[in-house]
Amino acid sequence: MRKYLPIALDMDGKNIVIIGGGRVALHKLATLTQFCQRITIIAPVIQPDIRAMDVSIIEREYKSTDLDNAFIVYAATNNSEVNKLIKKDANEKKVLINVVDNSSLSDFISPAVFKTHEAIISVNSEGKQPVLSRDLKNYIKEHWNDFLSYRNRP
After folding, report:
1. What's the count of helices (H) and strands (E) in the chain, helices before strands?
2. For residues 87 and 109, which has the higher predicted lDDT (pLDDT)?
3. Long-range contacts of 59-64 (CB under 8 A, 24+ apart)
4. 135 C-beta neighbours (distance < 10 Å), count
5. Do 60 and 120 lie in a common domain?
6. 132: domain range?
7. Number of other CB atoms surrounding residue 14 within 10 Å
8. How many whole angstroms separate alpha carbon 108 and alpha carbon 14?
9. Is residue 85 classed exposed, middle or buried when 0-12, 13-18 and 19+ CB atoms within 10 A define those classes?
10. What is the mean pLDDT of residues 100-129?
11. Is the pLDDT of residue 151 over 80?
């Protein structure tokens, strides 16, 4: 059984590369743009919603040199062979990788995240139940103000 260490990474000045330009990449961007300003999307086809975001876009097929300056890479293609190639290249270049649909190929899993002015809440189920993680994050988000009110009582 895999064990995951929950940590918070300093992303100041570090690069994230997402290979893939579809719905899954867009979903990852919704969280990542809250924490990192240096994100590059690489894919032959890019969703319009991604184009509207403040990220670098390279519209072409993946090349191994795309990981040369990456700290983290997300393999978010719908092609398992390409994702395996990205994993191989990431390992050779010592880049942390998340293969979004295959935790066994990933160095880390992405938790469900809720960010407020007071705290950053992340929930994970060690990759076993992502829907549970998402639902628990949403429950905390929905009850956050109640928690703060209760906590701040005299």
Report:
1. 5, 7
2. 87
3. 59/21, 62/19, 62/86, 64/89, 64/93
4. 13
5. no
6. 112-151
7. 14
8. 17
9. middle
10. 89
11. no
Task: pLDDT band for 103, please (50, 70, 90 cuts).
Answer: confident
- pLDDT classification of 152: cutoffs 50, 70, 90: confident
Q: How far is CA 40 from CA 12, 69, 109, 129, 149, in A?
A: 15, 11, 19, 28, 40
Query: 51 lies in a domain?
Result: yes
Which two structure tokens, joined as six digits, stand for 127?
Answer: 């990759």
Same domain for 147 and 101: no
Confidence of residue 77 (pLDDT cuts 50, 70, 90): very high
20, burial (CB in 10 Å: exposed 0-12, middle 13-18, buried 19+):
buried
- Per-residue pLDDT band for 2 (boundaries 50, 70, 90) equals confident
> Please, are residues 95 and 39 in contact by the beta-carbon 8 Å criterion?
no
